[in-house]
Amino acid sequence: MKVLITAGPTREPIDPARYLTNRSSGKMGYALAKAAQKRGHSVLLVSGPTSLDIPEGVDFIPIESAEDLYQAVESQIGRMDIAIFAAAVADYTPVTVADQKIKKSGDELTLTLQKTRDVLGSARGVMGFKGTLVGFAAETENVEENARGKCARKGCDLVIANDVSRKDIGFDSFENEVTLVYTDRSEALPQNSKEHLAYDLVEVIEQL
Ligand code: CTP
């Protein structure tokens, strides 16, 4: 099958020298890309900047901002059977990008941000994607309930939820512990390395 995977953080530019980003390392998305490729799928990885090597045999589109990610996904998703959205996309981006480096002035500086376009939330309606749609949910409280809401709102077949308030798993860790949240049920998986987890997740997603 043809599988699209988004991964890593986005960078939202403030001026030529600065950007807003987050703590995503890209490890989970890259592990999924590697596992899907090993299981015989044709994989396209669309990723923000990370320090990871691109898995062998995987097609790759590098992106920086949330808007770059939106446009890359919009142009590719039509030919996909499965789309897995593991990227940690900025929810807000600066309204204006300064042409020149912003100089120090007062004691406070206010940045005005506007909402980015929701790539996962646009896959079904705006982009007309009919394949298997999988999202991630990074939560700090009411993990299952929030993830179930996301699953329904964004038209997902599955949301992979993890508790990012825990220091030992999730963001930038080698291990993860996730709950598979469907619209009507959920299943907790035991803590595991992101590599092992990725194989199990690809198997689950194939069944969908
Ligand atoms: N996502 C996306 N595009 C965005 C924001 C998020 O594709 N602009 C995707 C992420 O890749 C992830 C899922 O949406 O698969 C969950 O993101 P999250 O920001 O947690 O979801 P929200 O519904 O925006 O909820 P919250 O209010 O918790 O931010």
Describe this protein with a few key phrases:
two-stranded antiparallel ribbon, 208 residues, single chain, 8-stranded mixed beta sheet, alpha/beta, globular, binds cytidine-5'-triphosphate, Rossmann fold
Structural description of this entry:
The protein is an alpha/beta fold and 208 residues long. Helix content is 25%, strand content 28%. It has five helices and 14 strands. The chain has helices at 27-38, 66-76, 119-123, 143-153, 194-207, and strands at residues 2-7, 12-15, 18-20, 42-47, 59-62, 82-85, 92-94, 113-115, 132-139, 158-163, 175-176, 178-181, 186-188, 192-193. The strands form four sheets. An eight-stranded mixed sheet has the order 5-4-1-6-9-10-12-13, with helices on both faces. Strands 2-3 form a two-stranded antiparallel ribbon. The longest helix has 14 residues, at 194-207. The chain is globular, with a radius of gyration of 17 Å. The structure holds cytidine-5'-triphosphate. The site of cytidine-5'-triphosphate has 15 residues, from α3 and β9.
Topology:
Blueprint: E1 2-7, E2 12-15, E3 18-20, H1 27-38, E4 42-47, E5 59-62, H2 66-76, E6 82-85, E7 92-94, E8 113-115, H3 119-123, E9 132-139, H4 143-153, E10 158-163, E11 175-176, E12 178-181, E13 186-188, E14 192-193, H5 194-207
Parallel strand pairs: 1-4, 1-6, 4-5, 6-9, 9-10
Antiparallel strand pairs: 2-3, 7-8, 10-12, 11-14, 12-13
Helix pairs in contact: 1-5
Bound molecules: cytidine-5'-triphosphate (CTP).
